[in-house]
Amino acid sequence: MNCLEERILRDGVVKEGNVLKVDSFLNHQMDVELFNEMGKEFKRRFEGKDINKILTIEASGIGIACIVAQHFGVPVVFAKKTQSINLDGEMLVAEVESFTHKNKNNVIVAKKFLSEDDHVLLIDDFLANGCALQGLIQIVQSAGATVEGIGIAIEKGFQSGGRMIRNLGFQLESLAIVEDMNWETGEIKFREQD
Amino acid sequence: MNCLEERILRDGVVKEGNVLKVDSFLNHQMDVELFNEMGKEFKRRFEGKDINKILTIEASGIGIACIVAQHFGVPVVFAKKTQSINLDGEMLVAEVESFTHKNKNNVIVAKKFLSEDDHVLLIDDFLANGCALQGLIQIVQSAGATVEGIGIAIEKGFQSGGRMIRNLGFQLESLAIVEDMNWETGEIKFREQD
Q1: Contact (CB<8Å) A59/B78
Q2: Which helix (H) or strand (E) holds B52?
Q3: Do B32 and A85 make contact, defined as CB atoms within 8 angstroms?
Q4: Which of A27, A92, A164, B12 is 20 to 30 A removed from B142 (C-alpha atoms)?
C-alpha cells in the first residue's frame, strides 16, 4: 500500500453516489508533502520516458502537476476550461463533459505551448469516466505532440475511463485505483498493484 | 532586479489596455524553477512570521502557492470560484469582482479548513484592483483566522489595489511592481524595492 492509498483510508470520506471526498489533502486543502511522495512515485513509474512537458487541467490538477514537475525538471501547462479574454492567438480546443458537474466545458490550450516536438506527461487528480482526459489527449494529438504517459492520483476502477484509456495503448499509472467503496460502511477497496 | 522582474522583461508582453501577458511562464505555462526562486524570496520577506497555512484562489494562484508552500512547510488551501456539487458542509463565502473578466464570482472555502488557530499567508499571481484579494481577506477574517501576510507575484502599481491593502496595515510583498508599461514601445518600468 502506497502513501496515497494510506492517506485515502485515513482521511478520505465515502459519500452516497460513489463520491470519494479527499478535499482535506488532495483537491481543496492540498498536502504538498504528499504530492512530493506522489511525484517520486510517478518518476519511478515513468522511468526512461522522454518527457519534456506536463499538461494538466484547471483547477485541482494544477497543484499536483507543479509538484510532480519538479521530479521531472519540466514546465507545466494547464488547460483552461473557459475562454478567457486574456487568451489570444491560436487555440487548441476540445469539448469535454464533466461527470462531477454534469456540464460541458471547452478545454483550451494556447497553440504556442504544444508542438510536435513535445513529449507530454498528462497529470490529473481524478479519473472516472475519463472525459477530461480524453479532451487533453485530443489536444496533445491535435498539436502533433506525443502523449508519453498519464499519471492520475485516484482512479475510480469501477468506472470505464481507465480501461478505455489502457485499451487505447496509453501507459496510464494511477497511484490509487478504487475498486469498490461503500458509503454506508465507509469501506474502500483498492486494486492491487506492483 | 530579481529573477521575476528579469523574466518579465525577457518574456512578458505588453498589450493594449494595460494587459501584461506572462502566460509563457506564470499563468498558463508555468516555470516551476522560477516559482521555487519566488518561494525563497517570499520566505525571506516573511521571515519570523508564524505561518501555518497558505490560501490562494483558483486557478492560476494554485501552482505558485504549492511551490511556495514547500519553503514554509505548510499545506495550501485554494478558494473556489463557483459552488461545486462536491463541496458540502459549512462554507465561507465572499463575493468578488474580477477586473480581467468583468464578472462577479463567489469565492468559497469550506469552513473546516480555516479556524481561529490559523495564521495565513495569502498568495496570488496578480494584484491590480485587489478585488480577489479583498475576498480572500474577508474569508480569513470571517473564520477568525489571522492574515500574516500577502505574497503577490506581479502587482500593477498604477492601479489602486496595492495601496489600499497596505493602507489597511497588511504586509503586502509583491515580487514585481509594474509602475508603468507601454504597449507601443513594449517598455516596462518597475518600482524600486530593497
Answers
A1: yes
A2: none
A3: no
A4: A27
Does the beta-carbon distance from B63 to A66 stay under 8 Å? yes
Q: Any idea where the domains of chain B sit in the sequence?
A: 3-187
Under the banding of pLDDT at 50, 70 and 90, the label for residue A101 is: low
**Cα dihedral: A140, A143, A145, A147 (round 10):** 10
Note the pLDDT tens digit of each residue in B157-168.
Answer: 999 999 999 999
pLDDT at A84 over 60: no
Mutate to test the interface with A, among B23, B53, B64, B111 (most CBs of A within 10 A): B23
Q: How far apart are CA A155 and CA A174, in angstroms?
A: 6
**Interstrand relation of A29-30 and A53-57 (parallel, antiparallel or unpaired):** unpaired
CATH number of B3-187: 3.40.50.2020
A19 touches B: beta carbon within 8 Å: yes
User: Cβ separation of B76 and A29 shorter than 8 Å?
Assistant: yes
State the pLDDT at residue A104: 79
ipTM comes to: 0.93
Domain at A3-190: CATH architecture: 3-Layer(aba) Sandwich (3.40)
Query: Looking at the predicted structure, is the pLDDT value of residue A161 above 70?
Result: yes
Q: Report how far residue A33's alpha carbon sits from residue A123's, in angstroms, rounded to the nearest whole number.
A: 17
